[in-house]
Amino acid sequence: MTNPNPKWTDAERAHAVLRLTLGLNIAIHGLVRVGHPLEFADALVAGFSQTPLPALSVKAFAVGLPFLETAIGLAVLLGWRFRAALMLGGVVLASLTAGACLKQDWEIAGLQLIYALVYFALTLRAGDLRLALDTREAR
Length: 139
Description:
Blueprint: H1 10-34, H2 37-47, H3 55-78, H4 82-102, H5 106-124
């Protein structure tokens, strides 16, 4: 009989640590804002007032963002629909990066490149996913 839980490879361990970290980071980004999405949205509208983005579109995006971040972060953390969660997270990140660039907030845009690399690494090594709720993608 084969061992149902063989020793993890270094790549699988590294993937698990990076997945844990990104999942917590993104989920908590959303969770701390879910209780007051309108206040968060109003602050973003004010922050984007000097960009060509219409205030209504900024507010609509900002109201939904905390819920989207919470869902993406939890999906990544739990390994549920993992590849789809990473792709959606990447699209959200690209939207945030576009906004940072329109604001000419190059420090934030640079930090977002780090998130992009994390999404890239996790996607590239999605085959190393372990302990996932989505059993179709887990070993």
